[in-house]
Amino acid sequence: MDISESSDVAAYVLYSYKDGDGMPLDTLWNPLATSYTYTSSVTKYFSVSYVITAHRRPDCTSPFSNVINTIFAGANIDTCNKKVVISWNTYPSLPIKVTSYSILVSVNGETPE
């Protein structure tokens, strides 16, 4: 996340986003924040979309940011062919086109490669 160019931003508001509607999840009252971690168990089951707004006092909120999605990976075991098939949802190519994905593998707790 980039710092807002507006000097009067008081906070950033994080929303879950679905079908054009946002549900507020948290407010970052540090206008100098450049990163944030939101933890949710729901991402264990499906991809989730988020948007962010900038908030100025007394009561002025910017439009939603571009949509940011989590990537949900699922695995199916093919015992007949002795393999695991991994699938995942694509990441939206806005505002920057996604050109590739990197998959890291860890065997028995070793460092992912």
**Broad shape:** elongated
Total of helices: 0
Structural class designation: mainly beta
Number of strands: 7
For the CA atoms, what is the radius of gyration? 18 Å
Spans of at least 5 consecutive residues with low confidence: none
In terms of DSSP E residues, the strand content is 35-45%
- Which H/E pattern describes the elements? EEEEEEE
Helix content: under 10%
Summary, kept brief:
The chain is mostly beta strands. The protein is built from no helices and seven strands. The mean pLDDT is 87.
Keywords:
113 residues, two-stranded antiparallel sheet, mainly beta
Plain-language structure description:
The chain is mainly beta and 113 residues long. The protein has no helices and seven strands. It has strands at 9-18, 21-28, 49-56, 60-61, 68-69, 73-78, 83-88. The strands form two sheets. Strands 1, 2, 3, 4 and 5 form a five-stranded antiparallel β-sheet that branches. A two-stranded antiparallel sheet has the order 6-7. A hairpin with a 3-residue loop joins strand 3 and strand 4 (60-61). The two termini are 27 Å apart. The mean pLDDT is 87.
Topology (SSEs and partners):
Elements: E1 9-18, E2 21-28, E3 49-56, E4 60-61, E5 68-69, E6 73-78, E7 83-88
Antiparallel strand pairs: 1-2, 1-3, 3-4, 3-5, 6-7
